[in-house]
Each structure stands twice: as C-alpha cells, then as structure tokens.
Amino acid sequence: MPRFAANLSMMYNEHAFLDRFAAAARDGFNAVEFLFPYEFRPGELKARLDAHGLTQALFNAPPGDWSGGERGLASLPGREDEFRRGIDTALEYARVLGNRKLHVMAGLIAGDRAGETQRKTQRDVYLNNLVYAARAAQAEQITVVIEPINTRDMPGYFLNRQDDAQAICAEVGAPNLKVQFDCYHCQIVEGDLATKLKRDMAGIGHIQVAGVPERHEPDIGELNYPYLFDLIDALGYDGYIGCEYRPRAGTSAGLGWLKPYLDAGR
C-alpha cells in the first residue's frame, strides 16, 4: 500500500514552518519531506520529528543562491568546492534527521542559448560531482537522487527527461545513485507515466506527486492517480511518495483523496 510523505515546503503554509510537523501528524501522515532544512539547527528539526512520530523521508542538498535564482550547483563549472561543502553539510543534517534519501539539484544551463559545448561541459561537471556525492553518501548508507524537472516551472534546468536521468545514473555507476520520479514533472515533459514507471522502476529512488496542470492535490487534473498508485505498488516500490503540491485551499481540507489510503493502513 502506498506510503505518503507531506511536503512541508508546499503544504501547510497556513502554519509557521516548525508547526507544520504537528499539522501533518494530526492529518495522519507518518513521514515528511521538504526542500531545505538549513535555516534551522538539525536538532531543532529532529525534536519536531520525534515529538510527532514522524520519519524524515527526503530533503535537498544546498542549491546555491536560491533567492537569487540558482537552482542547484551540481552541473555548474567552477562551483565544485562549494558543491562538495554543501554535500558535507547535507550529510551532517541527514545523520541527525535520519533520512536515507538526499536530492541533489543539477542547476540551470549557463546562458540563454547555451550550445552543445556548454551542455557537454556542464554534463562532465555534473557526473564528476555526482560521483563525489554518491561516494560520500554511501558511507552514510544514503541514496542520492537526481530529478528531471519540467521547463515550464523551471526554465533552463539542466535535467528534464527520465531517460537522460537514468543514463546519467548508469554512467556514474554508483549503486546508491537513483532517479527521483516526479509524476507532475514527467507528465508535463513526456507523459506516458505508466510505461516509464514499468521501464525504470529498478532505478527509481523516490516518487513525488501533484495534480497536472496546476500542481494542486492529486485528485484533480489529467492524471489517474489511483491507477498509478496501484501500479507503483504492483511494481514493488516500498519508499515514500512525496506529496509535493500546492493545496487549492486549506491543506487539511484538501486531503479527502488521502483518507482511503490512511483507512486501509489502519
């Protein structure tokens, strides 16, 4: 049966961040994920997890200057030392929070019309940085995940397609490097989700969901999530499914779609 993690960066925004843990637990979630933990001390976050019986499923490594528009460092030439320091910081947090998955963002393609030479340069940097991240994470028994992101929400992002992400993981060759399969991003860029889940499940390390096209609850839009959840179960996925969506109104009021899964798990 699917296990769901509330994404506290996008859900429960009607509460202060540290209060979102309690709100998610009240609604029946037993796991959470979020983008970045670095505004808070790891012990402060761990205390919230423990107080409400929550598991930390995933968070992201430092992305560079997020407020300035950066969206990851892994493919950016000249930022390798900063990237490595960020991985070390992320692993320090993971040791405290206990998550076994770490998302590493690729970053944006340099220049508005970057050509093949620039893309190849960034790809080489990306692979070398992923080798470092996977090796460092392996010592902590943590899986690094990379996520194809659609170009509508994040124009210029370096990684957009599932097959490209799987090929990169194969080229790096680390057993703890996998793909983060976000159903929302995949539907916008490629579609044909069921076929891709069947094709790639062995290389998928984390799954996320949201309604398409507005990124609201997964009970509205063009994707048949009950079918996909059954398929994900049948394919043997045993990780958490991250609910990375923007609630249409109040978060709790929009969780009717989740109730059948919570009831089935009782």
From TrEMBL:
Q: Which Pfam families match?
A: AP_endonuc_2
Q: Which residues form the Xylose isomerase-like TIM barrel domain?
A: 21-260
Q: Does the keyword Transferase apply?
A: no
Which Gene3D superfamilies does the record associate with it?
Divalent-metal-dependent TIM barrel enzymes
Q: Which UniProt keywords apply?
A: Isomerase, Pyruvate
Top-rank taxon = Bacteria
Question: What residues form the catalytic site here?
Answer: 147, 244
Identify a single GO molecular function assigned to this protein. hydroxypyruvate isomerase activity
| Keyword Flavoprotein among UniProt keywords | no
Q: Which InterPro entries match?
A: HPT_OtnI_isomerases, HyI-like, Sugar_Epim/Isomerase, Xyl_isomerase-like_sf, Xyl_isomerase-like_TIM-brl
One Gene Ontology BP term is: glyoxylate metabolic process
The UniProt similarity line reads:
Belongs to the hyi family.
The protein depicted here goes by the name Hydroxypyruvate isomerase
